[in-house]
Design a protein that fits this description.
The structure holds 2 protein chains of 2 kinds.
Chain A lengths: L1 H5 L1 H11 L6 E7 L4 H17 L4 E7 L6 H4 L7 E6 L4 E4 L5 H7 L3 H5 L2 H4 L1
Parallel strand pairs in A: 1-2
Antiparallel strand pairs in A: 1-3, 3-4
Chain B lengths: L2 H11 L21 H7 L8 H12 L5 E2 L6 H4 L4 E2 L3 E6 L5 H15 L4 E5 L4 H9 L5 H6 L3 E5 L7 E3 L6 H14 L3 E5 L3 H5 L3 H17 L3 E7 L17 E10 L2 E11 L8 E7 L2 E4 L15 E2 L4 H6 L5 E2 L3 E6 L5 H14 L4 E5 L4 H9 L6 H6 L2 E5 L7 H15 L3 E5 L3 H5 L2 H17 L3 E7 L11 H4 L4 E10 L2 E11 L9 E6 L2 E6 L1 E3 L2 E3 L1 H79 L6 H14 L2
Parallel strand pairs in B: 3-8, 3-9, 4-5, 4-7, 7-8, 15-19, 15-20, 16-17, 16-18, 18-19
Antiparallel strand pairs in B: 1-2, 9-10, 10-11, 11-12, 13-14, 20-21, 21-22, 22-23, 24-25
Classes of the chains: A alpha+beta, B alpha/beta.
């Protein structure tokens, strides 16, 4: 629990750092309240990003309970939903991101990892 | 699944992961699906739930469930008040049968007529598309949205850009819907077509449980909701939504029979209330949806005592002397060219003459053709048309489906408020549908017109060879007064006969009259019924002439005999006078002779007395005096 509480900070730092780069991945995770599922999703996402996109990603977590009006913009139906805003085109991954393989395919990171994972950065 | 229970602990432990914090969102609290959901599912059903009993009692007092009027013409009549208030209603049907429109109209009318704002959640069309689609119906979605009465939320799920990993729920949808409802205080919600989600998301099990939760949530939210669903194979909806929405299910249908399409609606179920169970035709026109019939659910029309003239005095005489009842239905049937339209035009002209409005629906002739043709029998309808008392509506019956005609009639009658509606002829409707449909449509027309106290006049074309009375049997029971015009073929001529087949509530003539189209209108003549049968036309005239001649000669004969007799009497009188004169003369003569005899006798007596005196025999004096007295007595005769 303690660990989790501290983690969002580095995420934000990274995102702030990444603004300079063009290749920055802009990811947005929509959740509704702090349910186990949304926390799991955030965890899984952070881990994935650290693993595959270190240094060039930005994650924004939107709680729709607090900002319900934001759901319309990205056509959010399912919770949790991860939206890849940049690079285009928009991709969505729904669910708790527990299946790493599927998540990577969803974010179109999968081919990048097998062929030219480092080069893609 | 465990999200509900785990939330409370986690919300305190990890608030800083999230940007937003306000977790006060009771409305969408996802509840476990097992026990509480099952319990809640019974809510509103007819089970004896302590919570529900109060509601049932209350509703029995009001005799029905609380209902939300749709404002859609006819639908509220069929559902006896509208959709169940605060509950979801499933509207299902195949593509293009008007589900979306029904939903939109429900919201628009709710917002404009009943002060109930509404949320339209569109899964198939964007709000712009939707706005454009319904603008032609006079629904201004944008304007209503600006006034905060309507909110359209377009939910789009694109499968190609979505990857699913692990557990998820549709809380996003709930949040959006909740936000939309709360932002305008919506009382009505339409979800069109939520089953699209099955195309966008692959985990059907999650979707099902989430939809079940959604419908329950809508109930708890106390919004009157319409959920549309695509018709599935052998099921009402493709994904079995009817299992979840159990309060009210309406099926829309769009079918084409003999190239003419009809839309139909049926209420499959409506818990806790009675409803019309038939299939009702409905249509979509420039004012939205109209469900028909409008008032065909009962026979409660007022019956007027007032009688109106047909415009033909002798026909009125046949109809109990005073014409037909106001607000009744009159059928004029006959074969082609028997003068049905002419009779109908007489009715129309007479109504206008009384200063009443008449709506003439012509399905065979155009207005100008009709006016021209009626002028040829000395009936000028043009002035009435100009005055605005007579309004024509000419159209080919096949131009529209029956429902369209019916609504057109309904609409025109509503705006024109006529006293008489002429439909000439109704038989062409059979061309626009099947005869069964035409019959049901006519029932509705008649019911509607009766309800409005409008006299209805229909003409009906019977085909040669048909049994005149039987061919119209399908509508005959709907008709109050039935006038039959028939051809009478006789002596190389075709003439028209008219008779009243039935006339409810009046003593009517049982006789056939000959019916003439003269240049000063319709005339009715008595037919000749003699030993040689019914004669019409020139045979009637010939027979009449013959009779007249016969009568004349008979009359002359009588006169002659009378004169003869007179003469004879006079001759006799003369004879009597002559005889009397003769007799008198004779009598005079006789008297004279008698007097002579007497005087002669007396003289003889005197002479004898003289002689006797002279002889001295006086004792025989008495006897001759007696005999002398007898003679004057006989003379008296």
């Amino acid at each position: 629990m303690k660990q989790r509480r501290s983690r969002p900070q580095p995420l934000r730092e990274i995102s702030a750092k990444g603004k300079a780069s063009r290749d920055i991945w802009d990811l947005r995770l929509y959740v509704a309240g702090t349910t186990a599922r949304s926390i799991a999703a955030a965890e899984n996402l952070r881990r994935l990003c650290e693993e595959h996109l270190r240094g060039k990603y930005r994650i924004e977590v939107v709680d729709l309970l607090a900002h319900p009006q934001l759901a319309k913009g990205d056509q959010i139906v399912a919770i949790p939903t991860l939206v890849r805003k940049i690079p285009q085109p928009i991709r969505k991954v729904i669910g708790d991101l527990s299946n790493e393989e599927r998540t990577l395919v969803g974010l179109q990171l999968r081919p990048a990892r097998t062929q030219a994972g480092p080069g893609r950065g | 699944m465990s999200s509900g229970s785990s939330r409370s602990t986690l919300s305190e432990s990890k608030p800083d992961l999230l940007i937003g914090r306000g977790l006060d969102f009771r409305g969408v609290t996802p509840l476990p699906y097992d026990a509480p959901a099952g319990k809640r599912k019974r809510l509103g059903g007819p089970t004896v739930d302590p919570m529900n009993r109060a509601e049932t009692n209350q509703s029995s007092k009001r005799r029905s469930l609380p209902k939300a009027p749709t404002g859609i013409q006819g639908l509220d009549e069929v559902t006896l008040g509208g959709l169940p208030r605060g509950r979801p209603t499933l509207i299902c049907g195949s593509a293009g049968c008007g589900k979306t429109l029904l939903g939109i109209e429900f919201l628009v009318r709710g917002a404009t007529q009943f002060g109930e704002p509404g949320v339209f959640m569109a899964f198939e069309e964007t709000s712009e598309e939707l706005g454009e689609n319904v603008r032609s119906l006079g629904f201004d979605l944008k304007g209503l949205a600006e006034q905060g009465k309507l909110l359209v939320d377009y939910v789009h799920v694109e499968r190609s850009e979505i990857e699913e990993t692990g557990e998820y729920d549709l809380e996003g949808l709930f949040i959006r819907l909740n936000h939309a409802i709360d932002s305008i205080g919506a009382k009505r919600v339409v979800l069109d077509t939520i089953e699209t989600l099955f195309g966008g998301l692959s985990n059907a099990a999650i979707l099902r449980s989430e939809l079940r939760r959604l419908f329950q949530w809508l109930k708890n939210k106390k919004v009157t909701a319409i959920i549309t669903g695509e018709r599935g194979e052998g099921r009402l909806t493709r994904h079995g939504l009817e299992e979840y929405v159990s309060d009210c299910v309406i099926v829309l249908d769009h079918r084409v029979i003999e190239q003419i399409s009809t839309r139909r609606m049926r209420i499959v179920k409506y818990r806790g209330t009675t409803h019309g169970t038939n299939e009702y035709p409905f249509l979509i026109d420039e004012t939205g949806i109209s469900v028909l019939p409008i008032t065909s659910l009962g026979l409660r029309q007022e019956a007027s005592e007032e009688r109106i003239s047909s415009g033909i005095p002798r026909l009125d005489a046949m109809l109990g002397g005073r014409g037909v009842y106001r607000g009744s239905s009159v059928l004029i049937s006959g074969t082609a060219g028997t003068g049905k339209t002419s009779l109908a035009a007489h009715f129309a002209a007479e109504a206008c003459r009384r200063g009443e409005r008449c709506l003439y629906l012509a399905f065979e002739e155009s207005e100008s053709q009709l006016i021209r043709n009626m002028r040829s029998i000395g009936l000028d309808l043009a002035p009435w048309s100009k005055k605005g008392l007579l309004r024509f509506h000419a159209a080919r019956p096949t131009a529209n489906g029956l429902e369209m005609h019916l609504t057109a009639l309904h609409k025109r009658a509503t705006e024109f408020q006529p006293h008489l509606v002429v439909v000439d002829p109704i038989t062409t409707f059979i061309a626009a549908g099947t005869s069964r449909e035409a019959e049901s449509m006519l029932t509705r027309v008649i019911d509607f017109l009766k309800g409005e106290q409008i006299t209805a006049l229909f003409t009906s074309l019977t085909h040669g060879g048909d049994v005149l009375e039987a061919s119209q049997a399908s509508i005959s029971s709907l008709i109050d007064t039935w006038i039959v015009v028939r051809d009478i073929e006789l002596g190389g001529e075709r003439n028209r006969g008219i008779f009243v087949l039935k006339a409810r509530g009046m003593g009517h003539s049982n006789q056939i009259r000959e019916f003439l189209l003269t240049d000063h209108g319709v005339e009715l003549k008595d037919v000749y019924v003699g030993p040689e049968g019914v004669l019409t036309g020139s045979m009637r005239q010939a027979q009449e002439a013959r009779e007249k001649a016969l009568g004349l000669s008979r009359h002359q004969e009588i006169e002659r005999r009378r004169r003869d007799l007179d003469r004879k009497r006079r001759a006799l009188d003369v004879q009597i006078a002559a005889q009397r004169a003769e007799f008198e003369a004779e009598q005079e003569e006789m008297r004279r002779l008698l007097a002579q005899e007497e005087s002669a006798g007396e003289r003889i007596c005197d002479d004898r007395e003289e002689m006797a005196r002279s002889r001295g025999a006086a004792e025989q004096r008495e006897t001759p005096r007696r005999s002398r007295r007898v003679i004057p007595g006989g003379d008296r005769n």
